[in-house]
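Please fill in the sequence for the structure shown.

STRUCTURE ENCODING:
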């Protein structure tokens, strides 16, 4: 039997009535998850699909999606989670790259414009409500076989399918167990869409420990009154999200330890956690543990972690991303000296590194490199490292620009801006001229409420003057645009690429 499935099955046998999924009025038990995924597995196996061919699973964040994922694994097929908010072009591109043998469609959408066999929701409902059927456990997904394939959310080019094996996932689950101690009393928030691997931070460490997944779905997250209700009634003990999603929830004044005394752990991943956000969190939840974690999908969710405390927070203007998992190797590539620090691209190797992109040897060769028989992944993230191995994120290699000969890290400019009292959030982007050279840098700034009444001209002067005190002139944005909010991608991260497109349209 697949080892992840084995752990979940044992929980289902020991605690059949334990709730594994809770979303508003909907809840489901471990026994239901186990039995429903058995039925899905037997249904899939009866189709005699090509061995190990991936299965496309389309839908939202419903309980049945989890039964479909586990059913695919039990049957012997990796699943590709695709969010039902995806546009037809993305669905067609993923289909073309992955060549799945089947689509399980848990949505009311149809007509995907693809020629792969589709099982529609009605048919799947029949499968789930039929009598229990067993499946052939010897055919389940093996240790080195793909468990899931998540397609990157790049806004340009063809999406790349990151292949994550059972062993990759097991390594991640074991690390989460050791680092965050999930157990059967844990109620872990599940907010990220299933097509974003941040959701894996909740799903598999949660299900293999008998925890309850407290789901905050996108329908709720998009509707402010619903979100407020969900946040203030949240039963989760562990919060997992991007910092941007947390910032959005900070809008509700009652979102604090008094309202939610059981919420005692916050784990962030997916984008930079700013000093300001961490400070605000520790004020609202003074007894909570706060962790900053970092990782690309290609390394199975997260590979570094550090607890940010009231004691260590004042030491850092820009927060560290943490220490690398102890079973990983790393080095920095293309190192340059910057402000007395060595900064280079983080290159990592270890049991959680993906085997590469599905059916895409060209992109795989670009990002993965074998050194002395070990596979290394080039993260595209610049970092520095202190003497104890603590890593500091310095920006994406692709968000580094040159203007008038100076190299500027856009994320560093944002970090400087968010350290100012006036600025709540910031996203700086380049404006290109007709020769494709950067002409100006434009900061999109969300103001702190206390400063919203000020005139833009006055603010402009004030912010520039403050930046001047500890920033090189060339790094000061030429233009400040004061906006109510920043665009957020489907994965809940600040969408810098969308703003670059908008500014240069
Ligand atoms: P994804 O593969 O979509 O999960 O995105 C991974 C990328 O998000 C990383 O390569 C980083 O650029 C960024 N990222 C993830 N976590 C952090 C973090 N804690 N701080 C800064 N950037 C992060």
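FILLED IN BY: designer on duty
SEQUENCE:
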């Amino acid at each position: 039997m697949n080892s992840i499935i084995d752990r979940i099955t044992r929980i289902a046998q020991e605690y059949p009535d334990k709730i594994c999924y809770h979303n508003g009025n909907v809840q489901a038990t471990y026994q239901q998850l186990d039995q429903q995924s058995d039925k899905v597995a037997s249904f899939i196996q009866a189709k005699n699909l090509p061995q190990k061919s991936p299965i496309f699973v389309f839908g939202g964040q419903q309980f049945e999606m989890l039964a479909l994922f586990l059913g695919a694994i039990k049957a012997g097929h990796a699943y590709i989670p695709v969010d039902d908010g995806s546009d037809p072009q993305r669905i067609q591109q993923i289909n073309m790259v992955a060549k799945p043998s089947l689509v399980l469609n848990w949505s009311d959408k149809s007509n995907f414009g693809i020629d792969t066999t589709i099982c529609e929701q009605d048919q799947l409902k029949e499968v789930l409500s039929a009598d229990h059927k067993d499946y052939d456990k010897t055919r389940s997904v093996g240790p080195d076989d793909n468990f899931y394939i998540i397609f990157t959310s790049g806004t340009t080019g063809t999406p790349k399918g990151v292949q994550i094996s059972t062993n990759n996932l097991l390594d991640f689950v074991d690390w989460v167990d050791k680092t965050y101690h999930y157990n059967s009393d844990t109620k872990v928030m599940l907010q990220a869409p299933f097509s974003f691997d941040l959701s894996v931070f909740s799903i598999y460490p949660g299900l293999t420990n008998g925890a309850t997944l407290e789901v905050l779905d996108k329908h709720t997250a998009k509707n402010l009154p619903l979100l407020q209700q969900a946040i203030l009634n949240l039963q989760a003990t562990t919060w997992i999200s991007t910092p941007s999603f947390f910032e959005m929830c900070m809008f509700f004044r009652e979102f604090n330890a008094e309202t939610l005394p059981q919420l005692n752990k916050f784990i962030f991943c997916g984008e930079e956690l700013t000093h300001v956000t961490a400070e605000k969190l520790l004020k609202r939840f003074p007894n909570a543990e706060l962790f900053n974690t970092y990782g690309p999908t290609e390394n199975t969710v997260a590979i570094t972690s550090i607890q940010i405390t009231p004691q260590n927070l004042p030491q850092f203007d820009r927060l560290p991303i943490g220490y690398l998992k102890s079973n990983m190797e790393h080095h920095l590539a293309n190192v340059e000296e910057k402000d007395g620090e060595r900064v280079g691209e983080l290159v990592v190797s270890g049991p959680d590194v993906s085997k590469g992109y599905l059916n895409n040897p060209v992109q795989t060769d670009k990002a993965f490199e074998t050194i002395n028989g070990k596979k290394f992944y080039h993260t595209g993230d610049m970092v520095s490292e202190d003497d104890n191995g603590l890593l500091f994120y310095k920006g994406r290699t692709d968000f580094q620009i040159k203007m008038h000969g100076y190299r500027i890290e856009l994320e560093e400019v944002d970090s400087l801006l968010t350290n100012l009292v006036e600025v709540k959030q910031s996203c700086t982007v380049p404006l290109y001229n007709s020769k494709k050279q950067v002409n100006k840098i434009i900061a999109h700034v969300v103001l702190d409420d206390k400063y919203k009444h000020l005139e833009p001209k006055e603010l402009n002067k004030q912010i520039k003057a403050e930046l001047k005190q500890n920033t090189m002139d060339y790094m000061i944005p030429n233009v400040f645009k004061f906006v109510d909010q920043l665009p957020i991608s489907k994965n809940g991260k600040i969408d810098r690429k969308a703003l670059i497109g908008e500014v240069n349209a």
